[in-house]
Automatic annotation (TrEMBL):
Coiled coil: none annotated. Residues 121-253 form the PurE domain. NCBIfam families: LarB. It comes from the Bacteria. This is 1-(5-phosphoribosyl)-5-amino-4-imidazole-carboxyl ate carboxylase. Signal peptide: none annotated.
Amino acid sequence: MDQNTLKRLLQQLLDGSLSIEDTIQRLSHFPAETLEHACVDHQRLLRTGVPEVIYGEAKTAAQIITIARAMLERGGPLLVTRVNEEKAHLVTTALPQLHYHHQARILTGPGRGIQSEGIQGLILVICAGTSDLGVAEEARITAEYLGNPVQTLYDAGVAGLHRLLTRQQLLSEAAVIIVVAGMEGALPSVVGGLVSCPVIGVPTSVGYGTGTGGFAALLGMLNSCVPGLGVVNIDNGFGAACLASAINRTQTVKPAEGQR
């Protein structure tokens, strides 16, 4: 349940098109619904601006189907992360209205996602190399599904810095920038030195032996001397997108009380 759904429900109650009994029935799973393997938080979008999201990697296809079906029945948005091809095939066979984003390993529900009122700021997703695309696409799909305008700048790592420097206009237009990089993780520091907006670094588990599964990139980003740079966990494109979306929402200028 989101704010618009709740408003419509209450308006129907006020104008008499919905009875008290029907309203109670509609709210019977508000704010949560207990299933066999989960307790679905239908109120989360209304409360936080981000809906309940299914983390699919450690769940079976059957568990994902059960949870997703409960969310779809309540009319809520649906996002399932970290779903491999085999699992995605089983889920979409049972729920054909879902769409699988192969590179991002994400399932999304029907429609265009959350329609966020007033969000106008651009989220720019930059990734250092083609090997980082999976994490970058997870960030892009998530940010778009949360109602944000998103653009991308891919394969723009520090080994060929001219690829980034020729896109200064795009960098200056962004309200928030997500920078995805593996290896030594230097790219967020470079980007942070070129822009005034918040920059979110996402270290990836891409790199040779001493990269130690992304820890080298993580430590490099955490030790950056560039102000205004925040860092999320290794390969956490989803978390970066949620943070960027929250920043974008708070940057939206709202009219003062009594002004329109």
